[in-house]
Specification:
The protein is an alpha/beta fold. It is built from ten helices and twelve strands.
């Protein structure tokens, strides 16, 4: 488990994260959502130990990430949105750097590369950005770490590759893993992320499972517009609307509509989900 308590971080006088509190449990794939500049990448780099908390604490199974203990480093992986195009074949890269992760499996790397329809024998500096991204995704998953932090992993992927990514993440991660995926392309990950974390400037607006969201909010797909809807958007064939679930009916959560609802009613949503 990851326990975050009163976490704060600033760049100069600009506070990005302030008094952030949350727990991340094993066996979950968390979606980290938020507008640009709210601190999603900063949070990921704090969790993997690349940055040191200025206030508050992060506890990862009794370790502090910034201490950079070998036992912690070998069981976590941070996949940045920026991926270097090194002058090596993909498989050569995997063999060279996989040794730093105790659980790395070269056979698994090649298998995931096949799922992603990527050539492990191609030089990485000759790959397109999408091919390069898929190589690093395969490497991250093949490291078989308990903690996996991914920053905008579907950036640069075409539609078929995004489907391949979802398949790979659900198939090739450990049952006890804690996965945190930062994204602004919520439709790419709608079927795999649960719970949902929504960050605002210096605040956590929501940290809830899909079941909890469905219990408290109702997502209505209809041709009729509801006047008291918290959020309404026209879609082909009608409207998607979000309103308080006062009848305890189940509905399919639309994460994009959820995100827009939360941004429109920040204090209301915080009050509902932080009781």
């Amino acid at each position: 488990m990851i326990q975050i308590k009163d976490l704060g971080f600033s760049y100069g006088e600009k506070a990005v994260l302030k008094n952030i509190n949350m727990n991340l449990e094993e066996g979950r794939i968390y979606g980290l959502l938020g507008e640009n500049g709210v601190g999603k990448t900063t949070l990921l780099t704090l969790l993997c130990g690349l940055k040191k908390p200025q206030t508050g604490t992060i506890d990862v199974d009794g370790c502090k990430p910034y201490d950079r203990l070998p036992s912690f480093l070998s069981d976590q992986f941070y996949l940045s949105d920026e991926v270097p195009a090194v002058n090596m074949k993909a498989e050569e890269y995997a063999v060279t750097y996989g040794k730093f992760w105790e659980g790395f499996d070269l056979g698994k790397f090649n298998e995931i590369m096949e799922v992603l329809e990527n050539d492990p024998h191609q030089k990485m500096n000759k790959m397109s950005f999408g091919q390069l991204k898929k190589t690093y995704i395969a490497f991250a998953l093949a490291c078989n770490t308990k903690y996996l932090f991914m920053d905008e992993p579907t950036n640069g992927l075409d539609i078929p590759s995004k489907a391949q990514f979802r398949k790979a993440v659900t198939k090739y991660t450990r049952e006890d893993s804690v996965i945190l995926i930062s994204t602004h392309q919520v439709r790419d990950l709608e079927n795999i992320i649960d719970p949902i974390i929504i960050l605002d400037k210096q605040d956590v607006l929501m940290n809830a499972t899909i079941a909890e969201i469905s219990d408290k909010l109702y997502f209505d797909y209809t041709t009729e517009k509801v006047e008291d809807a918290l959020y309404s958007e026209m879609i082909p064939g009608g409207n998607i609307q979000v309103y308080l679930n006062q009848t305890e009916e189940e509905s399919k959560v639309n994460i994009e509509a959820l995100f827009n609802t939360v941004l429109k009613h920040k204090e209301l949503i915080k009050g509902i989900f932080n009781k």
